[in-house]
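User: Structure please.
Assistant: Input sequence and predicted structure:
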Amino acid sequence: MTTYLDRIYVSQLRKLLRVDADGLDRLRQTENLPSPESGEGERTYWSTPAVREWLHHSGHLAPAEVTLAWWPDARRPAEYLGADVLRRTQLARPWAVLQRWSTDHGTIVIAWPVNGNTITEAQIRPHTPDASACLRIGPRYGRFGPELLTRNHATDSETTVEWPDLARVTGRPMPFWPYSLRVPELIAAWAPGDPAVRHHGTGAPGLDITPLLQMAILHRPEDPIHRAMIYTAQSVQTGAVPVSDLDTVETWLAEGVLRPDHITVAALPAAQIEDPVELDAATLYSGWRELQRRDDWLAEQCMDVLASWNGGQHLMQGQAVQLDLDSATTREFLTRLRPVTRTALYKQIDPNKTGDAMVDPLTDAPVVIEHDASRATVLAPDHLPPGSPLAALILDGEVWVRTEDGTLYLAPLDTNTGLGWGFSGAGPYALAILTSKLLNDIAAPGARLDEGPPDQGLLTLFTTDWPAGTTLTRAQLQEARA
C-alpha cells in the first residue's frame, strides 16, 4: 500500500482512508476526493500523487497518521536536528543512532542499528515521543533502495517506506551508511554537506576488537599471548561483512532506480585490509591457553570477543554441555571435580557468575555447578589425555568414554559438532566418526562432520534408540565396525 508506485487500488485506498465503500463514495461527493484513473471493481485505481495532494489539502488525515508515502512534497530542504546515540547503560556499547529531521509537516526520525544489533519499533518508540514519522533501517533492501521500516497506522502493522519517498518529503538526498561502516561516532558527527568519510570499518559487526589489542600491548611481541591476540583481532577485522551494499547503491544509481538527489553515501572504506599472516596452531593455542588462566576483567572481555567470533575455536576445549544430574555417570564424574579460583575461561559457561567454579583435574575441563546444585555445565575437552585405550562408550544423558584403566571421561567434542544417538541425523553421524577415531587413538580430537562418511556399521549402531545408561564395550564397537 505504501510503495513508491504511481497507483493505489480501491481496497488499498479504503485501508489508507479508513473507510468502507460507502465512506469512499461520501468522500468523493463531499470532500472532493479525486476520481479513479481507470479499472473496474477491485482493479479500480487512483493516481498516487493525486491522492497524496488531496490528503495534504483536505486535512482528512494528518501526516502523523499516515506513512511518508502520503506526505506532500517538500517545499524546502528539511533541517537536520542532529543525532542521538542510544545505550542501554552509560558504559554499554551503542545499539542505535537516531537522526532527526525537521520538515514543514513534522519531525522525521531515522533509527540506524549499530554494532550488529537489530531494532524494533517498541525499542525506539520511547525515544521518539514527538516524531511524526519514525523509520528504522532494516536488514534487507527494498525495490527502490535500502529497507525503511515503519508503523502503518491504517492497518496497525509494520510496513515499508521507499527511499525516494524519504528524499521527496525531506527535499534532499538522504545519507546512507553501509552495513560494515555504521560506526556510531561517524553517524553522530555527520552533518549535511559533509563529504563521504573514509573509515576502515567495524570488522565483524557487533564485535569490538579493542580488548584483544589492549591485551596484546601488555605483552612483548614475541609472547604467544601477544601474537594470538593480534592474529585474532586481524581475523575478526578481515572477516567483516564486505561493503557490498555500496555496489548495490551504485547499481541502483546506474539503473535509475535511485537518483543522486535521493541518496548520498556517507562513508566509504578506507582501504582493503590484507588477511593476517597465518599463525601456527601451537602458538595460537598457547596464547589463548595463557589468557584463559587470567582472572582479570580484560581477559574476560577477550573471551567474550572470541566466543562471539568463532565460538572458541582457538581454545583447547570443545563446547559447553549441560550435564544430566539424574545420571549415575554424571554423578561419578562430579565426584572427582576440584574447586578452583574463577578465571577468564569460566566466562564461556557462567557469564553471570551464578555458580561455583570447578575443574576436572584429568582434562582441565572447567565445570560450573549452580549455587543451588540445580545444574552443572562443563566445557567439554576437545581431546582426551593419551594413554589407556578406549574400553567402552556409555550413553547416559551425554556420551561418555571409559578407558581400560577404569577412568571416566566426557567424550571429546569439536567446537561446532554435537553427539547423539537413537535417530537419523548429525549426532549419530558424528558419534560414529568419533568412535572410529577413539578406537584407533584415545587422544584423537572431537569429530567434525566434514571428516565423514562414517563407518556404516557404527552409524547403524548409533541410530538405534539405546536406553539411557547403555554401555557399549570395545568388543561391541569393533564388531559393529567390522
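The first strand starts at residue 7 and ends at 9.
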